[in-house]
Amino acid sequence: MKYGKILVAMDESEGSKQALEYGIELANSMGSELTLAHVLNEPAYPLYGEGYSMAAYQDSIEQEVRQAATLEKSHGEELLAQASDAVPKDFINVKTELLEGEAARSICAYASTNNIDLIIMGSRGLSGLKRLVLGSVSQRVLSEANCPVLVTK
Fold first, then answer.
1. pTM value?
2. Cα three-residue angle 22-78-46, rounded to 5 degrees
3. Are strands 33-40 and 5-9 parallel, antiparallel or unpaired?
4. Among candidates 79, 143, 113, which has minimal Cα distance to 7?
5. Contacts with 37 (C-beta within 8 Å, 6 or more apart), sequence order
6. What is the 3-class SS of the chain, one letter each residue?
């Protein structure tokens, strides 16, 4: 089977680094287009103590959220630049994408919209109660994606 378009979902985990290695090797051997994607975390609104009027602090809150979003975007761009640097220089079919929203949903939507043939992503290695309570992005992508998914460990 040939995968013409491969998406590697990137974060800062070790599994993500392994996913990148698999993605580079597979895309290179098949002459595939490789997309490196990172989903931005939505900045949380700061919580202020009881008795504070939100209206009185609205400008300050909005400024903090804008600064957090700018910092998050910058961090995501840096992460993708580092991942892109790991791709051999003669590899011409590589691009990067910053996605927004809930991670699993954003990855699946991007894959569907862009006719991705294979998603490669790392597993964070959560087990037991943490996995049950927190869920797993890779597990959700496995269940919701319209294309094959390779999860690295």
1. 0.82
2. 115
3. parallel
4. 113
5. 7, 8, 9, 10, 80, 96, 97, 98, 99, 107, 110
6. CCCCEEEEECCCCHHHHHHHHHHHHHHHHHCCEEEEEEEECCCCCCCCCCCCCCHHHHHHHHHHHHHHHHHHHHHHHHHHHHHHHCCCCCCCCEEEEEEECCHHHHHHHHHHHCCCCEEEEECCCCCHHHHHHHCCHHHHHHHHCCCCEEEEC
44 Cβ neighbours under 8 A, 6+ residues apart: 68
30, amino acid identity: M
Q: What is the pLDDT of residues 38-56, one digit of tens each?
A: 999 876 655 555 545 555 5
Look up residue 122 and give its two tokens: 């790392």
3 and 118 in contact (C-beta within 8 Å)?
yes
Structure tokens at 135: 């869920």
